[in-house]
Batch of 4 targets.
Target 1
Amino acid sequence: MTMTRTLPLLALLLAGCGADPILYPVPAVPSGDRIGVSVGSVEVLDVSLPLYADIEEITFEQVDGSLLTSEEVAWADDPQRAVTLELARVLGTVTRATVAPTPWPFESFAEARVDVRVEEFVAGIDGRFRISGIWYAGTEERDRSGRFAIAIPYHPEGGVRAIAIARAQAVRDLARVIAAQGL
């Protein structure tokens, strides 16, 4: 048997033997136009996710409204860490402020802090990735907060990759809301 025929066969055999999940990274998506803000630095606190969303296994909504995870597919990074980093990256890109996740890595204090508490974070049975909750943004001069409910459509035929892209777009949209209304 030639090497080109052996490798695909070996891959198939190994795929059937392993119990390890397939890991899906969340890609970076375009951040959009710049948003002017009144601060030069922002600390993003660890994003609070619901229990079902704070595990590596990807959660799917079922027809009856229940939530199901699969040991066969998982996020490539810890969800809380990944969402916090995504939020900080997009905020930094769209605002031009220095943005970092907690703990603040610089000697001087950040001019603003952002705290996000997520109530819903799920790939819906309706083909939309939904994220909702409340955000808080505070500076020495003012404190602001706001509720958010974001739903990004995805094509179920696209599988978990489509869900990952929708998740990235939802976090991007949340960052844009916080930049425009909170900073």
Target 2
Amino acid sequence: MCGTPEDLRHDEAASFVADALRDRPRVLDVGCGSGEVSRRLAAVGFEVTAIDVELSRARQAPGVTFIEHDFLSFEAKPFDAIVFTGSLHHILPLDKAIARVTKLLTPTGRLIIDDFDVEAPDSETLRWYYDIQNLLVATELYPAERVDGSPLEDPLTRWRAAHGDAPLHTGAEMRHAVSSRFVIRELRRGEYLHRYIAAGLPADARGAKVAKSVQLLEQQRIASGDIIPIGVRMIADRARTA
């Protein structure tokens, strides 16, 4: 295994998106952040426009056009697909964001979302998550300052405090907004907490191995019913009109 924990995280998101795109060459990546998913999509042949309100972390790449712009007022020739990876949950207002998607998609366009549901985890799920963090802190592979709250606090209290600074859309809210204008072709839950942990691990091959191990542990615990999957992956197409 090579690369970094962040590489694994971005590879995972880009692989899902690329599989969902199929024959849709022109792609808009909304809230692209560092542009890593955009770069990966361009590397396998897609023509990508990547937008964000702040692009200081983005690196230029062949096949990617970076534009610093607010999505709600963005204008362009319609795209074959619009992608949100970890960004839709905080775009306000949500209904206007989905309305803008419809304006920026071709009649056969596709909406692809890779995100998380802030309301999904229960106490057991979060206890597992914080236990993994604490174990990695003890091995000096993870910075203590990235761990939310105190181990003496209720896990749900810690999670809500960490995600309460700005309103975040829940999985149900995103699903409802999308279904009001699109036909949802696929909606599935999956592992996601490992991505939070990956962001704090050393940016080297050792960190990548740990990140992959945490992902596999999360998958196993989900499969056994011990914890709840908080990842949300959605593929939706334009609704047919009479």
Target 3
Amino acid sequence: MFYFNFRQIVKLIRTLFGQKRSASFKVGDKTSIPLAAVVAALGIPVPMISGRGLGHTGGTLDKLEAIPGYQVEISEQDFIKQVKKDHLAIIGATGNIAPADKKIYALRDVTDTVDSIPLIAGSIMSKKIASGTDALVIDVKTGAGAFMKTLEDSKALARALVDIGKGVGMQFMALITDMNQPLGNAIGNSLEIEESIDLLKGNGPADLEKLIVTIGGYMAVMGDKAKTTAEGQKMCEEVIHNGQALASFEAMVRDQGGDPNVVNDPNGVLPQAKY
């Protein structure tokens, strides 16, 4: 386990993130794919720089790459252009955007430092700051299915994230949510994409929709689209059930080279298990 003080962590992050982008929002986890589409449908820019799997989990990029043709590596110019057009893009770290994090992220997986709170915080925040985020809601998981197995560790990570966010002048909120059992019903990259699409059609698992609507409500307030979280949550429910969130997801998939037919025929487009 590595130990850093707050000043060291902020210094590390400033080294990692490189250039800053336009104002927007970001969350992480399986939740982030449908949530990003919901928030983008509210008119809030969501430029996401996400990671791959660590330890026992599949990362956001791994899940999206289950969609044939989906490109997680696009140019900086295309990234900005797409966020302006669709209010949404989900990519990985590149040579110009959080370049050091891409290497450190891979090293953590093979040096038994996946659960290092300072390195987790540095990795999360470098990508968020690099994407131009000036307001952020982070969903910190706790429990058997999370890296942070105990509530104590989850609180420590949440505090580190909040301190870093404030240290770089960011509007910030961290929520701690239960991961003692899988969120939703699906486990596996293709299956989780299919479940995300079901949710965006208004047919998703109740627990996943509740979490997305809850976090989305806070983001709507921080994005000046709602005056209260209750109003923001209602707006999130509306874009889920009127098809606007699904349209946001489909536009992102199409513009990043993915097969947009995944929205209407996920079983026919996504890879399937042989047995």
Target 4
Amino acid sequence: MSRSMRGRHSLMKLACSSILLAGTLSLLTPSAFAADGTFERTLKVNGPVLLGIDTDSGNIHVSPGATDSVHIVAHVHSGGGWFGGASEDRIKQIVANPPINQAGNIISLGHNFHANNISIDYEVTTPRGTDLRANSGSGDVRVADNGGPVQLKTGSGNVEATGLSDHVQLETGSGDVKATMLSARDVKATTGSGNIHLANVQCGLWAHTGSGNLDVSGKPLAAWKLETGSGDITADTGGAPLSLNATTGSGDIAYAGGNFKQNGTGKDHVIGDAGGGGPMVRAITGSGNIHLK
């Protein structure tokens, strides 16, 4: 065999080996080692419940259930990795000994849990009126008809809630906040860069977003403060009497409700009273529009 033929033969062998290696590696991607598990528990309670839920990157869903128990279904996931066996063993340990603590009617899920590339999604039913504190690092938080005070927080997911009562705190770093009140006593909603949509707000409100839009409806029976860095503000105040102080850096301001007496003039700053005046509605945007009715 000539030297040139031997060279071509060696190149062909090298190419075949590279193809086989690439195929093998494609079968051994980190996702190939992803693992899952589930645990389920029912905890008995006999009075008002204080429930704390923490997860690094999982989702949290809470809804009303039986009056004498908290029911937990948790889905444990591995993010994958080259050491798949270790992740699978870790998940088995979590399923066998889940991060649940109970002291009477005080219950915590995921407290002091060290994730190590493991995420847990929680689906929980709890008695109405539960004092709920739910926190996810990057997942979504959804709550329905809780009936008690809530503190819902996520780093980069969305917060969605309905039928909220008592004290309400909703926070996300970069997601959206969407919530409907039932009989909330006061509401605080913040996001770094997402939108905020709040309905049936009939109490004091502070809503702030860094760069998203604000859309609020209800009646300002106490002061409202609405702030966005660069988005629009839209508020339906249900014809309630109010005092308005609205400011925009470069947008328009409009009040479409009746019986409005404007006390301050200017395209970018409007002060006035609707219905003879009432709780203060302060609306501030850096570069968006403000529309109220």
